[in-house]
Specification:
Largest sheet: 4 strands, mixed
Radius of gyration: 33 Å
Strand order of the largest sheet: 10-7-13-14
Family: Belongs to the major facilitator superfamily. Proton-dependent oligopeptide transporter (POT/PTR) (TC 2.A.17) family.
Organism: Strix occidentalis caurina
Strand content: 15-25%
Helix content: 40-55%
Membrane topology: Multi-pass membrane protein
Protein name: Solute carrier family 15 member 1
Number of strands: 21
Distance between the termini: 44 Å
GO biological process, one term: oligopeptide transport
């Protein structure tokens, strides 16, 4: 192995350079998971995509992040080396995060007219991030391992433990902090959820990560690229297949293994190592299904949380807690019970637990569905009537449709009609009558405000209604609404749930205000401005959508079960892969492991697109059933797997090579003696 290094300064027996690498990894993981924590919400609420499209783009992005490590490994091992690869792709990564932050600035242009610009910027940013985070993923940990000498095995092992802790710490902090940043309101001309800040802080952390890594440049041991082993393995496999096809005739004797057909060109050691790798990669085939469920934490489960009451982050905290608990308590107890809990059995249990977690998610979803409003289907229209006048009113829809009586300052619930049958409406209040022609789009909800003044008047409205004779300006929290004429209404706007906001109206240059009622998570209201008494605003609330009533705490069981699944599946899977891989093939299995994550996210896209299930709980059950079936298949495969010790195999080859060298030396000596006698 060739390396370029200066004498390395050390601290407590560790190369000082690794501290720069650990800080770099912490900042990078904060940047990645922080951005990902609010990504699906950005799709849904900023770009205004529906749940299915948001989920599809999210999983496409995650899949791309786990496909690009192969590219990063090839660049590092065959061309630039690890250090230059990390620096180069980190620059790409930082630019991508910055572009994402810019793509979420609402005042950048007219949001409603130029959505295409926001989509183009965000997709560009995500592609750059995927290239960056995926490209450096296989390089950083390996580059850290390169900093140690051969006699520092103990320090190297501890480094990887600290390195893994820095990943979890970055993930934990970012998934707590970035949703809080998103909940803030910011903007120049219009206030919105602060996605620029939620994406901007991860962008800043990625820039810090890059700077810290470069600062340590003079201390690093930089191994020169020696050629990528994945390319050699691929060529060996390709030659074996080609050679076997050429000699498919029965006149050629069969060989013990199909890879033995590569022996004409490649040495026995490489062929044996490739066999060991393929043996493990074969076991990887069912594993993507686990990741198909696991990565829905950031998509479907996040969207599920938006229909619930409360606001907290639990998964990263559980990971930090469960890893040491499982290692220090659970596994020793199993060992004391004399149960042979092999790595493959642990992986099988992890898959089963993930399936169970989705059953728990389905049960929660069933309870949520009971509380959600029923929105109109295509071809249907829902109408709610609110009477803001002083007299009762009767609202008659065209016969044979229903009519309703509405008392003063009261409202009806939403009534569902076939859109094609809605032609007109008659409103009677006191001794006055008026008629309105109805031309409403299908598949939507509408609120009809009626008032008996000089005449009976009716208006389709939303959110704030000015029930005063004067023009007013309204502000709620930091959000300013358009100027409202008498008996006019504002558009709906989004506000953080679970809190109260100050409502202020400027009436004839006199400010009047009132503290709103607590706005429940997921709720929607129409607020009527009735007057001002002693600088106190008189308002009436009409509930359009009830607040979410199923608390987020009910998600804790599914997150707890899935976290346990992750601990026994992911950590064990990496440990198993490394224990079964030849020393120079660990990078191949690392790439293979990351590839299972990418394929898992692609499976989400395929299953969600093909299932056409209208109920979300049914989709959860479908994924749980698929993983359970795959779990059974994997258990059968694991039963027939034979564990090997790559070190013993390599030692045998070393011994054979020594014997061959000795044999060649003996032959050479005999030939030399024979020549000297002549």
């Amino acid at each position: 192995m060739l390396s370029v290094s200066c004498p390395q300064p050390s601290c407590f027996g560790y190369p000082l350079s690794i501290f720069f690498i650990i800080i770099n990894e912490f900042c990078e993981r904060f940047s990645y998971y922080g951005m990902r924590a609010v990504l699906v919400l950005y799709f849904k609420y900023f770009l205004q995509w529906d749940d299915n499209l948001s989920t599809a783009i999210y999983h496409t992005f995650v899949a791309l992040c786990y496909l690009t490590p192969i590219l990063g490994a090839l660049i590092a091992d065959s061309w630039l080396g690890k250090f230059k690869t990390i620096v180069s792709l980190s620059i790409v990564y930082t630019i991508g995060q910055a572009v994402m932050s810019v793509s979420s600035i609402n005042d950048l242009t007219d949001h409603n007219q130029d959505v295409a610009l926001y989509i183009a910027l965000s997709m560009t940013g995500l592609i750059l991030i995927a290239l960056g985070t995926g490209g450096i993923k296989p390089c950083v940990s390996a580059f850290g391992g390169d900093q140690f000498e051969d006699d520092q095995e103990k320090q190297r092992t501890r480094f990887f433990s600290i390195f893994y802790l820095s990943i979890n710490a970055g993930s934990l902090l970012s998934t707590i902090i970035t949703p809080i940043l998103r909940a803030q309101e910011c903007g120049i001309h219009s206030k919105q959820r602060c996605y620029p800040l939620a994406f901007g802080v991860p962008a800043a952390l990625m820039a810090v990560s890059l700077v810290v890594f470069i600062i340590g440049s003079g201390m690093y041991k930089k191994v020169k690229p020696q050629g990528n082993i994945m390319i050699q393995v691929s060529k060996c496999i390709g030659f074996a297949i080609k050679n076997r096809f050429r000699h498919r005739s029965k006149e050629f004797p069969k060989r013990e293994h199909w890879l033995d057909w590569a022996s004409e060109k490649y040495d026995k050691r490489l062929i044996a190592q490739t066999k060991a790798v393929l043996k493990v990669l074969f076991l990887y085939i069912p594993l993507p299904m686990f990741w198909a469920l696991f990565d829905q934490q950031g998509s479907r489960w996040t969207l599920q949380a938006t229909t619930m009451d409360g606001n907290f982050t639990v998964n990263p905290i559980l990971i930090i807690i469960m890893v040491p608990v499982v290692d220090a308590v659970v596994y020793p107890l199993i060992k004391k019970c004399k149960i042979n809990f092999t790595p493959l059995r642990k992986i099988t249990v992890g898959m089963f637990l993930a399936s169970l977690a989705f059953v728990a998610a389905a049960l929660v979803q069933v309870q949520i569905d009971k509380t959600l409003p029923v929105f109109p289907a295509a071809g249907q229209t829902q109408i709610k009537v609110i009477n803001i006048g002083t007299d009762g009113a009767t609202v008659q829809f065209e016969s044979p449709l229903q009519s309703v009586n509405v008392m003063s300052m009261e409202s009806t619930g939403y009534m569902t009609f076939d859109t094609s049958r809605l032609q007109s409406v008659n409103i009677i209040s006191g001794n006055k009558t008026t008629s309105e022609v109805i031309t409403l789009p299908g598949g939507s909800r509408h609120t009809l405000a009626v008032k008996n003044s000089a005449n009976v008047v009716a208006k389709w409205v939303s959110l704030f209604i000015n029930n005063l004779p004067d023009t007013i300006n309204i502000t709620m929290g930091d959000t300013a609404f358009e100027t409202l004429m008498s008996f006019s209404a504002s558009n709906y706007n989004l506000f953080p749930g679970g809190r109260k906001d100050n409502i202020m109206a400027i009436i004839n240059s006199i400010p009047c205000s009132v503290t709103s009622k607590t706005l429940g998570f997921g709720s929607a209201y129409t607020i009527v401005i009735n007057g001002c008494t002693g600088n106190t605003l008189d308002v009436t609330y009409s509930e359009d959508i009830s607040p979410n009533t199923v608390h987020m705490a009910w998600q804790i069981p599914q997150y707890f079960i899935l976290t346990c699944a992750e601990v026994v599946f992911s950590v064990t899977g990496l440990e198993f892969s490394y224990s079964q891989a030849p020393s120079n093939m660990k990078a191949v299995l690392q790439a293979g492991w990351l590839l299972t994550v990418a394929v898992g996210n692609i499976i989400v896209l395929i299953v969600a697109g093909a299932s056409k299930l209208s109920e979300q709980w049914a989709e959860y059950v479908l994924f749980a059933a698929l993983l359970l079936a795959v779990c059974i298949i994997f258990a059968v495969m694991a039963y027939f797997y034979t564990y090997t010790d790559p070190n013993e195999i390599e030692a045998q080859f070393d011994e054979e090579e020594k014997k061959q060298v000795k044999k060649d030396e003996d032959v050479y000596e005999k030939q030399t003696e024979a020549v000297s006698r002549m």
